[in-house]
Predict the 3D structure of the following.
Amino acid sequence: MPEEQDSADRRVRRTRASLHRALIELMVEGAYDRITVRDILERADVGRSTFYTHYRDKDDLLLRSSTDYLRAAMTAAETDADAPEPLAPVRTLFELAAGHPEIYRALLGRKSGTVLLRTTRVMVAQILAERLRDRLTMPEDEFATTVTFLSWGVVGLLGAIAEGHPPLSAEEAYQQVVRLIGPGLAGRSG
């Protein structure tokens, strides 16, 4: 029985990865608001009922699959680091944007809309909250406000990395965050 479960889990992971990849490819090629679930299904070669088993709509696919992708990237980066600094997750986000500017232009560039901006901000906030919760010692309400503030700033800098004129490097963006926010968090790192 465990072998059957493992096989089913692999199928689910492959299906979700295929849907995520299809959506990202379509976003890089054209406007998000013009992408339909049918377009995603055709690109991913996945059936409609399978899609709706996993996601409510394309916005849900974008948020959940991109958040899962970022979690995996954060875990890999943390595994490679010796003793990460409190803002290490921010550095990883900036490095991803620098490494995949076409994706971040689709998410945050001039042609992206409000849905993409808000979804990206929520995604970044979720990841930062997960990764910073044990690194910062502060009351929960202050932590929530800090994550909201930080996520909006990070999203702005992700856009500057992907579409700035000239583009900001990941390291330059990270150093700006450290200079501006680091002193306020210094006494809160645990």
The domain at 57-186 is CATH 1.10.357 (Tetracycline Repressor; domain 2). Residues 108 and 159 are 5 Å apart (CA to CA). The two ends are 43 Å apart (CA to CA). The chain is about 75% helix and 0% strand.
